[in-house]
Amino acid sequence: MSKSLVQENFGAAAADYAASAVHAKGPSLARVVELVAPRSHWRMLDIATGAGHTAIAFAPYVSRVVASDITGEILRQAQKAAASNGLTNVETKYAEAGALPFPDTSFDLVTCRLAAHHFGDVAAFVGEVWRAPAPGGTSALVDNISPDAKIRPDAPDAELRDLVIVYNAFEKLRDSSHGCCLTLSEGL
To answer: What is the mean pLDDT of the chain?
Structure first.
């Protein structure tokens, strides 16, 4: 996926993204906070923060949040949202998901929600998610997935391959910066 295409698409839609109910209040947001059970002393990194919804959801429960993204307009929306929520422990930083500008083991929690399907190099992103947390740290990833045998156990392999192609093609029509949604099997 082209970094400039992602920046162009999300920059133009920054205010809409900030107001998006799916991103701001979707059920996955509360669920990821619940599952992670954040601690008050944690330092958190939110990769591809978008308008900062995940960073803002965790901020009341941790000591410090770095909300990172590659799009300036989106980072300004995240800053604005943090300020309007009275959060003083959230800072924004330009950072590419596959090449984070932070030392190894800098964070207790690393999150990425509804964004990895935009990344051109998912392997580099995964490497960064592995490197950034301190020993004993936590990583939480939420993203869309393509259908596979775990979701459709009775579907023949050829049908599953076609479903993945059709699903990702549809997503690409809906959002030209879409890269690829992995299947559960690929993501594990």
So the answer is: 87
Complete DSSP assignment for 98-128: TB--S-TT-EEEEEEES-GGG-S-HHHHHHH
Q: Residue 174 sits in which domain range?
A: 145-188
pLDDT tens track for 130-173: 999 999 999 999 988 888 898 899 999 999 999 999 988 888 88
Task: Say if residues 98 and 125 touch (Cβ distance below 8 Å).
Answer: yes
Instruction: Give the per-residue pLDDT at 2.
Output: 61
Examine the domain organization and report whether 42 and 135 are in the same domain.
yes
For residues 12 and 98, membership in a common domain is answered with yes
Q: What kind and span of H or E run contains 14? A: helix 14-19
Both 163 and 78 in one domain: the answer is no
For 66, the enclosing helix (H) or strand (E) is: strand 64-69
